[in-house]
Amino acid sequence: MEIINLGKQNSIFNHFIREIRDVNIQKDAMRFRRNIERIGEIFAYEISKKMTYENNDITTPLGISSESLMIEKPVLATILRAGLPLHQGLLNYFDSSENCFISAFRKHNRGGDFEIKIEYMSSPDLEGKTVILCDPMMASGSSMVLAMEALLSKGKPKHIHVVVTIASSEGIQYFKENLPFRNCTLWLGAEDKEMTAQSYIVPGLGDAGDLAFGEKI
Hints:
By secondary structure, the protein is of the alpha/beta class.
């Protein structure tokens, strides 16, 4: 598995990462969603460099231009609900892609711990296709592993790109050790070293779903 951390490069990408972390800027939910969306757009641009291309002749008003055009359309998958703004950013660039939506939730036990459950998935056939699976946060890594397992029930993809805005070091390690599909690239915006007992990343940014769409009951 290849890991690509865009946050280690000096670019405007880091400006958006800073804004989604900032507790004062987070108070503007629309700005938070748009920043996550813009992060998704940058991820899409970088992932597009890994796609398959071929030369095509394009007719202009004054002649013929030969252009190298992407010939594959990735399937875009996301984990509801927090992943929606990031998914939209990817869709803004891969605008003719098929889409997959996965519903996952934390099932809390009496002892205070919890387990991740996949409740629902809507997906096209994934056999032989390139898939981009996104979720803004990867804390323990277990929900991402379960999401990939769910995807594989819809066919064996050619490649899976996993897009995560912020991940914990522990989550990355768990993901690597339990990866159900080896032909995979993990794209990161930032890696944080700590995680709380409640599986929140530190310093992280808080609950991405609540910041984007409001607190849940």
